[in-house]
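Worked Example 4.2. Consider the chain below.
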Amino acid sequence: MPDFDFESRIIDIPDYPEPGVVFKDITPLFDDAEALAAVVDQIAGHFADRGVTKVVGAEARGFLVGVPVAYRLGCGFVPARKPGKLPRAVYSQSYSLEYGTDELQIHRDALTPDDRVLIVDDLVATGGTAVATARLVEQSGAAVEAFAFILELAFLKPREVIARDCPQEVYTLVKVN
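Applying the procedure from the previous section yields the following structure tokens:
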């Protein structure tokens, strides 16, 4: 697929959620059929020959990207959810936020040591969610193949944070410097 102009479908919202912040709204990528297809096709196409058996997406926008990518790759999808959302036994992983901590969980039976996992999310900012998701995959005995994101806030240096713990490829469609 030829390069797609993803940036033209991302809207800057100044002073949201607080003054001085420029929020990058990617929802126009989802409500435009051509843009949505390009997102899914480019991410799935990049990883088509990598032996991915499962896609893991973090709550909640990682689900929006991860499920169609998994479908395109012909593999399953595993949601990484906030605590209390999954009904069976789980693996849990806490991680740091700018102000405090958070936690993600996956079902203990969702992945096996035979799985090669692509971690997918809409955005990577500080890298904390990505690393926490990788830790969940590792707890299950599965292998992280790579990370894929629509948008990377490169000025926050998430690749450096991810690289400290995870040597796998980080693939993004749009980088904001």
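The CA atoms of residues 21 and 162 lie 23 Å apart. The first strand starts at residue 11 and ends at 14. Compare this with Example 4.1 before moving on.
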